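Protein data:
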Amino acid sequence: MGKDMNKQEPIIRCFNVSKWYENLCALKKINLDICTGEFVFITGPSGAGKSTLLKILYLDETASEGQIVVDGMNLARISKARMPYLRRRLGVVFQDFKLIPNRTVYENVALVLEVAGVKKSLIRQKVLQVLRITGMTRKIHALPPTLSGGEQQRVAFARAVVGEPAIIIADEPTGSLDHDSARIIFNLLVKYNDKGVTILIASHNLHLINNTNRGRHIHLTNGELQLM
């Protein structure tokens, strides 16, 4: 399991968070604390608000109402100078991978560190390490379109963790994968949770969730939160 929750402060806090798209309410007064080192599943039907909540946490969207604090930073008041620091604390895994098709596996993963200004010698060391962990070393020079869906998601996972984030946010990371590939991704999430990384994952895959044997479940229905 991850770290002892009784000794940890919340790393993510949501206070009465709502999100409106014109007349549609996607999230309704969400109140949620996630502690450092937790493994949290967000479940619910399509359109329940799972992706919206995650997008707000990694600043792809902004909340219409309420306050969100991530790693001590209030997202409603965060300065442009602090934004890169926040993004380095978050690793995001997308369902559709979002890899750059004309860059190699190595280049896709290394880009995160290059943008952060990490030295080239250290970039190579870190990239090779995460590609080894994800089992993608042999594909280091391959382009994403030549990889299977499972392989592309492992590269996307490597990209998400290469900067050593405190939080991994995964939005339906196994949604387009076969069972074996999905299990590999879940096992990687568990491995990083064992290192103390906070995991927040939205997923429809109840079979894998029930067999992961860890984590807290949060259910969203029509934008409303239900703790399981």
Remarks:
- The chain is about 35% helix and 25% strand.
- Residues 1-6 have pLDDT under 50 and may be disordered.
